[in-house]
Design a protein that fits this description.
heterodimer; A: alpha/beta; SH3 type barrels; six-stranded antiparallel sheet; six-stranded mixed sheet; elongated; B: mainly alpha; rod-shaped
C-alpha cells in the first residue's frame, strides 16, 4: 500500500522505494530503505505534505513523492520484538575491561605511534572542513571554534555560503563551515560542491558533526566521508539532550568500530569543544586517517555487496590513483552511477562493461537495485553499530513536546487559524504596539537634531544652499530611513524567535499545498512574510530555498508584498482622500498586492509549464527555546546592515536627488523647482502618467524619488505640494502605482546579487508595467 | 563663502568620499573568491540546484 493510505499514527515497513534519479538516492540516504519502519505522524491541513517519523526524526514529503514508497503496515508489538532481536544479537558481550578500554584514536597513546605517524611537513598550514547534515549545529560549533557570530537558526539550510574562520587561540589554523548536506551524492549543488571542496581543496582534516539524538541518519554521511581517506574526528553534538532524555553512548565502542576519534560535545553550551580541538589538531598534524573504511560484510546476503565493492575497487585501482580519487570512494560512487566520477576515471568501454556486469550480478544476488543495495549495506552496519553502542530513549523529550505542540500548530483545523493569529500578532506588535511608538520617538529625535543643526548653521551664517543640503537632504532623507530602524529590529526579533523555535519549518509545511498550486514551494512563505517588513532581507532569505526555480519565482513575487516603507504612502493618501475608511483603504492595498502576487505566480507557472516542481523533502526540527545569543546576533547583524546602507547608498542617493532638484542644466541654483534638472527629466515621463491625471512633473518627481527609497515619495509630495492637485480617482491610481512599481534601489541591488543583472532589469520593467496597467484600471473604476 | 560654510562643505565632501570608499571596500569583499559555494561568486548565480 501507499504511505498516504496509512492512518495517522500507523506504522509500516518499507517494501520498496520507487521513482528514479537523485531524489530516490536522497530518500534512500535519509533512511527510507526497504525494511525500515516509518510512522505517519500527520498531514498538513490540505492533506499534503505528509509528516513521517523515521528512525528518530521527522521527515516531510509531498504525497506525490511519498507514494513512490511501497509500505506494509506492521503492529507495534512486532516492531518491539524486532528491536529486541537486534539488541540481543549485537549486544556487546565482551568483558567489562574490553568495554571500557579506550582505543585512543586521535591522541598520544596506544594507537598513536611515532613510528607509523606521517606528520605534516613543518610550516604546512592546517585547514579543517566542518561537515555535517542540515540542522546538526555546524554553525553553532563554527562560532564556538572561531569566536565568530554567524547566523544560526532552527531551520534546515540556514548556511548557504561557505564561511572561513581562524581557530580560536590558533590563528594559523583555518576552519571552513560548509553548507549542510545529507550525503555525498549529487542531489543538490551544495552536496556536489562540498564534495569537490574536500577532494580538490584537500583540507588536512574533517570535523564531522553528528546529532547524537539522530545518530543513525547522520552516520550515513560519516561513512561516506570516511571513504574519502581524509583524517576525521567525529563531534557527537547535543549529547546533553541525549543524556537528559536518559540515553547514553558507549563512546569507546563507537570509536573502536569506526576507527576514528569520537568526542561528545554540546556546541550550544560549549561543552567538549576544547577536547574536540585537541583531537582535531592531533589527527591533522599526524595525518591519522580512519582505521576503517570497509563496512560491507562478507556474511550479509552471501556477501553480494562486499564482493561487488571489492571487485570494482580492484578494477579501478590504477585509474583512481591517476585521477587522485580514493579508490573506495570512487568504487562506491561508480556503483551508485555517479557520472562525474565515471568521467574522472576515464574507463574504457571494456572496463565499463565489466563494471556493469559486476553491479548487475550484485543486484541479482542481493535482490535489490544498486542504489538500494548500497544504502542498505550502510544502514545495516549503522543499525548494528548503534545497537552495540547506543542506548537511547524511545522518544526524546524534545520530540514528545514537539508532537504535543504540533497537534495545535499543524493540526488539520487549527494550523491555519494559529498561523494567521501568530503572524497578525507579529505584525501588530512590530508595526503598531512596539515599532510605531519607537519609530515616532526616533523620528522626532532626528527632526529635533535637524532643527538644532539648522539653527546652529543660521547663527554661523552658513550659506543657504549648504543648509538645504544638510538639513533637507541629509537629515530629511537619511533621517527618514533611519527612523525605520525600530520597526525593522522589532520585526526581526519576532521573526528570529519564530525561526529559532522551529516554527518557520511548520509554516512551510502548512502552506506548501496552497503554494504548490501557484507554482511555489512551502519554503517560499518565509521570504514572502519577511517581504512585508523589508524586501532586502526577504530577497536574501530566499537563498534557503534548495531549488533555483523556486528561488527565482519567490524573489519575483517579493515586490508584491507591501514593505513597511510603503506604509507612510498609504497612510498619507488614506488620511487625505478616505478619512472615514482609512483602515479599509490601507488593508485593501495589502490585499491587492497579495492577490496580484498570486496572479503573477500563476502566470509564471503557466509560462514555465515544462519545469517540474522541486520536491518538498524537509526535515522537521524539534521545537527549541530560542537562544538569546542567536537572536541578539541576528538583530545586531540586521541593524548594522541597515545603518550601513542608510549611510552609504541612501546617503549618496539623497545628495544626488537634492542636487538634481536644486540646480538647473546651467548649474545655477533654482528658486522654482519646476526649473530644476529633476523637473525637466521628470517632465519627459509626465505624458506616460497623463491618462491617470498624474501627468504633473511634481507627481512624477515624487515617484522617481521613490526609486531611491520608498519613504522619499511622501516627503517629496509634501515638499512639492502634490496633495492638492489630485482627484480621488488619481489618488487611488497613485496609491496603486506606489504599491506595485519598481522596488527601491536597495531591493533591486539585492535582486541583482541573487539573480543577476538581467533579472533585476526584468523586475524593474515588469513591476512598472504591471503598476501602470493596474493603476489605470483603478483610475477608470473610480472615475465612473 | 564664509569659513563655517567651507568647513560644512568640507565635512560633507569627506562624508561622501568615506561612503564611496566604504561601498568600494564592501564590493571588493564581495568579489569572486573563486568558490562556487559563495553566493557572491558569479558562478553560483547560475548554479542549477534543480532537484531531479
Amino acid at each position: 500500500m501507499k504511505i498516504s493510505e496509512l492512518n495517522i499514527g500507523q506504522s509500516a515497513q518499507v517494501l520498496s522505494v520507487g521513482g528514479e534519479g537523485s531524489l530516490r538516492q536522497h530518500l534512500l540516504g535519509m533512511g527510507l530503505i526497504p525494511g525500515s519502519v516509518i510512522t505517519l505522524q500527520g498531514k498538513a491541513p490540505m492533506g499534503d505534505p505528509l509528516e513521517l517519523s523515521i528512525q528518530s526524526y521527522s521527515l516531510t514529503l509531498r504525497s506525490s513523492e511519498a507514494d513512490k514508497v511501497e509500505v506494509e503496515p506492521v503492529q507495534d508489538s512486532v516492531l518491539e520484538q524486532e528491536e529486541d532481536n537486534i539488541s540481543k544479537e549485537w549486544a556487546y558481550s565482551s568483558s567489562a575491561h574490553d568495554l571500557n578500554s579506550h582505543p585512543g584514536f586521535g591522541e598520544e597513546g596506544k594507537y598513536h605511534s611515532k613510528d607509523h605517524a606521517h606528520p605534516l611537513p613543518k610550516g604546512e598550514k592546517i585547514t579543517f572542513a566542518l561537515v555535517g547534515q542540515q540542522n546538526s549545529g555546524k554553525t553553532t560549533l563554527f562560532n564556538q571554534l572561531t569566536g565568530s557570530n554567524q547566523h544560526v537558526g532552527n531551520f534546515p539550510g540556514v548556511t548557504v555560503d561557505r564561511k572561513d574562520g581562524s581557530l580560536k587561540d590558533h590563528p594559523e589554523i583555518t576552519v571552513t563551515d560548509l553548507p549542510g548536506i545529507y550525503s555525498l551524492s549529487t542531489y543538490t549543488q551544495e552536496e556536489l560542491v562540498s564534495r569537490r571542496f574536500i577532494l580538490e581543496n584537500k583540507p588536512k582534516a574533517i570535523i564531522n558533526i553528528v546529532d547524537a539524538g539522530n545518530i543513525e541518519r547522520h552516520l550515513y554521511l560519516t561513512m561516506q566521508l570516511m571513504e574519502l581517506d581524509v583524517p576525521i574526528v567525529l563531534a557527537l553534538n547535543m549529547m546533553d539532550e541525549l543524556k537528559g532524555n536518559g540515553g547514553t553512548v558507549r563512546l569507546n565502542v563507537l570509536e573502536r568500530e569506526l576507527g576514528l576519534p569520537v568526542v561528545p560535545i554540546s556546541a550550544a553550551k560549549g561543552e567538549g569543544v576544547e577536547e574536540l580541538v585537541e583531537h582535531a589538531v592531533h589527527i591533522a598534524t599526524f595525518q591519522e586517517k580512519p582505521a576503517r573504511q570497509d563496512f560491507c560484510s562478507p556474511e550479509d546476503h552471501k556477501g553480494a555487496v562486499h564482493k561487488c565493492l571489492h571487485a570494482v575497487m580492484h578494477l579501478i585501482e590504477d585509474q583512481a590513483k591517476v585521477a587522485g580519487l580514493p579508490k573506495r570512494f570512487a568504487a562506491s560512487r561508480l556503483i551508485e552511477g555517479d557520472q562525474e566520477v565515471l568521467e574522472a576515471l576515464g574507463l574504457d568501454l571494456k572496463e565499463k562493461q565489466i563494471l556493469e556486469d559486476i553491479v548487475s550480478k550484485m543486484e541479482e544476488e542481493r535482490g535489490l537495485d544498486r542504489y538500494a543495495a548500497m544504502a542498505d549495506m550502510r544502514y545495516s552496519f549503522i543499525r548494528k553499530l548503534c545497537a552495540r553502542s547506543i542506548a537511547k530513549p524511545r522518544m526524546s523529550k524534545e520530540r514528545l513536546r514537539s508532537n504535543k505542540i504540533d497537534k495545535i500548530l499543524t493540526g488539520k483545523y487549527t494550523a491555519l487559524p494559529a498561523f494567521i493569529l501568530i503572524m497578525a500578532l507579529v505584525f501588530w506588535l512590530s508595526f503598531d504596539v512596539i515599532g510605531a511608538p519607537l519609530q515616532g520617538l526616533l523620528s522626532d529625535g532626528i527632526a529635533a537634531l535637524g532643527a538644532t543643526v539648522d539653527s546652529l548653521f543660521e547663527s554661523w551664517k552658513v550659506s543657504g544652499m549648504l543648509r538645504s543640503l544638510v538639513v533637507d537632504a541629509i537629515f530629511g532623507g537619511v533621517g527618514s530611513v533611519l527612523s525605520f530602524i525600530p520597526i525593522i529590529i522589532v520585526l526581526f526579533f519576532f521573526l528570529s524567535i519564530l525561526e529559532d523555535s522551529g516554527y518557520m519549518a511548520r509554516i512551510a509545511f502548512v502552506c506548501d499545498a496552497f503554494l504548490r498550486k501557484i507554482g511555489l514551494s512551502g519554503r517560499s512563505i518565509v521570504p514572502m512574510l519577511i517581504g512585508f517588513g523589508c524586501s532586502v532581507p526577504a530577497v536574501m532569505s530566499a537563498r534557503t530555498l534548495p531549488s533555483a526555480r523556486d528561488r527565482r519565482a519567490t524573489i519575483l513575487l517579493i515586490p508584491f508584498m507591501s514593505c513597511s516603507a510603503k506604509v507612510p504612502i498609504y497612510a498619507f493618501f488614506a488620511a487625505a482622500f478616505f478619512p472615514d475608511h482609512a483602515a479599509l483603504a490601507m488593508i485593501s492595498m495589502y490585499l491587492l498586492g497579495i492577490v496580484l502576487g498570486i496572479c503573477s505566480a500563476i502566470g509564471i507557472k503557466l509560462i514555465r509549464r515544462r519545469s517540474q516542481a522541486a520536491p518538498f523533502v524537509m526535515e522537521m526540527p524539534s521545537y527549541r527555546l530560542p537562544q538569546a545569543r542567536n537572536v541578539g546576533h541576528l538583530l545586531w547583524d540586521k541593524t548594522k546592515d541597515f545603518v550601513q546602507k542608510a549611510f552609504t547608498v541612501i546617503f549618496l542617493a539623497t545628495i544626488v536627488i537634492w542636487f538634481l532638484q536644486s540646480f538647473d542644466f546651467t548649474l545655477n541654483q533654482v528658486t522654482d523647482y519646476s526649473d530644476s534638472i529633476l523637473a525637466r527629466i521628470s517632465g519627459l515621463l509626465s505624458p506616460l502618467f497623463a491618462p491617470m491625471e498624474l501627468g504633473d512633473w511634481r507627481v512624477v518627481t515624487s515617484l522617481v524619488s521613490g526609486f531611491m527609497a520608498k519613504e522619499s515619495v511622501v516627503s517629496t509630495m509634501n515638499l512639492l505640494g502634490v496633495e492638492n492637485m489630485l482627484t480621488t480617482a488619481s489618488a487611488v491610481a497613485m496609491m496603486v502605482f506606489c504599491l506595485l512599481y519598481t522596488p527601491c534601489v536597495a531591493a533591486v541591488t539585492a535582486i541583482r546579487r541573487e539573480l543577476g543583472g538581467k533579472w533585476s532589469l526584468f523586475v524593474i520593467i515588469f513591476q512598472c508595467l504591471t503598476a501602470w496597467i493596474v493603476a489605470w484600471i483603478a483610475y477608470l473604476l473610480f472615475s465612473i | 563663502m564664509n569659513l563655517p560654510s567651507i568647513i560644512v562643505l568640507a565635512v560633507v565632501v569627506l562624508l561622501v568620499l568615506l561612503s564611496l570608499w566604504f561601498q568600494h571596500k564592501k564590493r571588493q569583499k564581495r568579489s569572486c573568491c573563486g568558490c562556487p559555494l559563495s553566493s557572491s561568486c558569479p558562478a553560483s548565480r547560475n548554479k542549477k540546484t534543480e532537484l531531479k
